[in-house]
Amino acid sequence: MTAKRPRPEPERVLRTAARFQLGGEPTAALELRSGHINDSYVITSRDGRRGLLQRINERVFANPRRLMENVERITRHLAERLGPGNRRRRLTLIPADTGRPWIEIKSGRGQSASPGSGRGKSASPGSGRKKDGNGADGWWRMYELIEDVTTQITASSAAQVFRAAQAFGHFQGMLADLPPPPLFETIPRFHDTVSRFEALDRVLAAKAAGAVRGKQAQAEVQAAATHRGLADRLIKAAARGLPQRTVHNDCKISNVLFDRQNGEALCVVDLDTAMPGLAAFDFGDMARSMAHRTDEDARDPEGVEVDLELFGALASGYLDGARFLTPDERQSLVDGALVLTLEQAVRFLTDYLEGDVYFRVERPEQNLERCRVQFALLESLLDREADLRRIVAQGENSAASV
Quick count: other Cβ atoms within 10 Å of Cβ 306? Predict the structure, then answer.
């Protein structure tokens, strides 16, 4: 889906950026291609101010208005918790000419979503109808750009893993007192691994992959079947009473901004999947993305394995940041690592068989290669499961003693 959407012409991007109160006329737009889902541009205004303009992928997020209401609530709450002097430690939305921090553009009518308007309804008289098109349709938002930071695709050291995991733990902790109601579920059953297997079953039953892709993925389909018994482990734990938290749901190191000068983890970004869930979801995402030294997009799974030094840094950092966890939650963390790695493998496999409709790809076999990396990591995690549980217990004791 992400690969099929037409890209807006450069002048349309600048015209869209001008609808936000960045300050000064937008003069340059630099597209960022590193994300899997949304379209992102760094916008520079004539006076040198910079913002991050993003178009929300509606094929992934079916209700952008409710998503943006989530993001508004989160950013407002974090601003209250951190105070005005910590703007580099949180995301800040920039208002649009609608009075809200988003706009909706539709070809021909080009309507903007007005304050309080529902998706697909007419804009109010004061909000202004804007004709657009040429690939610029959709829901747009802009954040203040946090300057003098770096991002990582893979961790450079155990210390960096510790800092990133600690940042995600702090993020959960700051949202622990988010006032009700619960956040909107932007992707229903997002970490329901059983439903991910059901989606794979449907694709296989429909033979949607075709002969070539189906044959290429035979070993991975068998691997998924072999490990299917893990799929409901967290679901059963939740039924036994694991608490629902406000969790990030996409905890990888590329979603942490690090200070360029001292390497400090400053800010957790990419809030679109933040919603109710289990702490084990976030820990599992971190384990599958940070506790090894292989790029997720590696072409060859040879040598992919859990690194116990990195896993130890991950456990210590997260437990230090997430001191609110109950004993049962702490015991579920390794299960999260196993289940989330399996889930991600199944998601990549399903997307490959469907023709690469969800994750952005740069080459035909990329989703299958990603799937293979995750299955190789899962095998390593299972081989070292006893060590992982011992490390989490040690990290728990270390965090408690600080």
Answer: 25
